[in-house]
């Protein structure tokens, strides 16, 4: 039986090698090894093509918040497909309206107008464009187009979002980038004072927005000090800048609150969301704005203040139906609370790992990082990182790892399990790390 599955797997892998170009992958590595064929998912468990089970402690790509295989999402999708398979958001569909209203209800503050797109990159691309047009319409006579972002931050692969991204390896082969983006250090090196100094030096009448992830994700799970975002909110208010919070990873319970900005009571002018809004069942992203931003685009048609962007699939009724069913689960099961409790438990367990190679374990809720160093305190080399990673996978646990962010060895493992994770599964993750670490002594 497994043999049969195995031979099927070989055929699939051969076709994959022949025809699929994978993201982030040096394909020559496939001469010596295989990617995993992922066949099934249920809860936190994935099953590969050979019938082996794994605990997915990375939720796909930080996004399967409610876990795999939720039948009620599949049913909602099936029903919506039969009712109305598609219509562009140039007119009105019931699921897109219901979802926008639901988001307005659960998002912090008065964020209440939703512009739909299909991914996190597109959500940020849209936010950046909204910010620039807002600047032109609200400050006529000034030239406000500059956007401040942070090193290590990630906002997406499209040109605008990539230009806002502060990870050298995601940008350095694609220049020239979009002009008008300035980068500052995030905490712990950077403070809000650094940002204010940049605004003053550039001239406040040239700057329109600051974009930031509440907790930097792929750049290392960098949790800011508690005063950072409230202070940043004040500085944005002082100079008339929009605060764009990218909650693509942190939204929908990941950090132990429904939205990470709630940790500090901060309300952005624009919030970008994707990933957990559907838990990956279907693609959907959105840019949600406050009435203050929305009103800047409102007026006599002759003034042409409207936002001239359309995406064929933005607000796809079937994706919105998936999001609604996903949010039903998230709210009913109050998964952010489990994220907080099990996240704290897992953090403490991992902080107890007794290894000279573990430099720091940090994070918030179920968004965690294990940073590694060598015997001299330098970044752990790729060879030993690989050994630990393979050891963890051999123990049946899938985790994430920093990749293509910075020059030199990248020595951070990521954990972002589904928010339904239980204590026994958290213990399995801990044990997998222990076995992985044994491989390097
Ligand atoms: C913080 C953040 N913003 C934006 C994105 C881009 O989202 P997508 O991959 O859906 O385009 C990501 C993706 O990982 C992300 O982590």
Provide the low-confidence segments as ranges.
1-5
> What structural class results from the helix and strand content?
alpha/beta
Bound molecules: pyridoxal-5'-phosphate
Strand order of the largest sheet: 4-10-9-8-7-5-6
What percentage of amino acids are in beta strands?
Answer: 15-25%
Can you write the helix and strand succession as a string?
HEEEHHHEHEHEHEHEEEHHHEEHEEEH
**What general form does the structure show?**
globular
So how many helices? 13
**Percent range of helical residues:** 25-40%
Number of strands: 15
Report the biggest beta sheet as strand number plus sense, adding barrel if it closes: 7 strands, mixed
Calculate Rg over CA atoms: 22 Å
Average pLDDT taken over every residue: 97
Distance between the termini: 37 Å
Features:
seven-stranded mixed β-sheet; alpha/beta; globular; 441 residues; four-stranded mixed β-sheet; 15 strands; single chain; binds pyridoxal-5'-phosphate
Secondary-structure topology with pairs:
Layout: H1 2-19, E1 38-42, E2 45-48, E3 53-56, H2 59-62, H3 71-83, H4 94-106, E4 113-117, H5 120-138, E5 146-150, H6 159-164, E6 181-184, H7 192-202, E7 207-212, H8 228-239, E8 242-246, E9 270-273, E10 285-289, H9 291-295, H10 317-332, H11 335-351, E11 358-364, E12 367-372, H12 382-394, E13 397-398, E14 400-401, E15 412-415, H13 423-438
Parallel strand pairs: 3-13, 5-6, 5-7, 7-8, 8-9
Antiparallel strand pairs: 1-2, 2-3, 4-10, 9-10, 11-12, 12-15, 14-15
The structure holds pyridoxal-5'-phosphate.
């Amino acid at each position: 039986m497994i043999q049969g599955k195995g031979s099927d797997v070989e055929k699939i892998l051969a076709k994959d090698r022949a025809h699929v170009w994978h993201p982030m992958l040096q394909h020559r590595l496939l001469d010596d090894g295989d990617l995993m064929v992922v066949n099934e998912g249920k809860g936190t468990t994935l099953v590969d093509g050979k019938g082996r089970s794994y605990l997915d402690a990375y939720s796909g790509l930080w996004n399967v918040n409610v876990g795999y295989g939720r039948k009620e999402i599949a049913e909602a999708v099936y029903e919506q497909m039969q009712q109305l398979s598609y219509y562009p958001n140039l007119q009105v569909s019931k699921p897109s309206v219901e979802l926008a209203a639901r988001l307005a209800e659960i998002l912090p503050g008065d964020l209440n107008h939703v512009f739909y797109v299909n991914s996190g990159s597109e959500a940020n691309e849209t936010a950046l464009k909204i910010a620039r047009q807002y600047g032109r319409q609200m400050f006529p006579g000034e030239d406000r187009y500059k956007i401040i972002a942070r090193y290590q931050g990630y906002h997406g692969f499209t040109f605008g979002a990539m230009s806002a991204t502060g990870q050298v390896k995601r940008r350095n082969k694609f220049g020239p980038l979009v002009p008008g983006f300035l980068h500052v250090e995030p905490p712990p090196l950077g403070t809000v004072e650094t940002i204010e100094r940049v605004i003053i030096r550039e001239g406040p009448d040239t700057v329109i927005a600051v974009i930031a992830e509440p907790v930097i994700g792929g750049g290392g799970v960098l949790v800011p000090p508690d005063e950072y975002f409230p202070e940043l909110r004040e500085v944005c208010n002082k100079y008339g800048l929009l605060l764009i919070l990218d909650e693509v990873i942190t939204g929908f319970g990941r950090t132990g609150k429904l939205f990470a900005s709630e940790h500090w009571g901060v309300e952005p002018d624009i919030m970008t969301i994707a990933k957990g809004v559907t838990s990956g069942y279907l693609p959907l992203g959105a840019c949600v704005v406050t009435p203050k931003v929305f009103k800047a685009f409102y007026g006599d048609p002759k003034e042409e203040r409207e936002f001239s962007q359309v995406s064929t699939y933005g607000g796809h009724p079937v994706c919105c139906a998936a999001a609604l069913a996903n949010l039903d689960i998230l709210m009913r099961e109050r998964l952010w609370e489990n994220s907080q409790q099990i996240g704290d438990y897992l953090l403490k367990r991992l902080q107890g790992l007794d290894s000279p190679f573990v430099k720091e374990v940090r994070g918030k809720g179920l968004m965690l990082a294990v940073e590694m160093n060598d015997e001299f305190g330098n970044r752990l080399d790729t060879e030993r990182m690989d050994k630990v990673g393979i050891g963890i996978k051999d123990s049946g646990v899938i985790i994430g790892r920093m990749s293509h962010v910075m020059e030199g060895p990248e020595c951070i493992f990521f954990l972002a399990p589904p928010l339904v994770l239980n204590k026994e599964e958290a213990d399995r993750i801990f044990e997998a790390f222990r076995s992985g670490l044994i491989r390097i002594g």
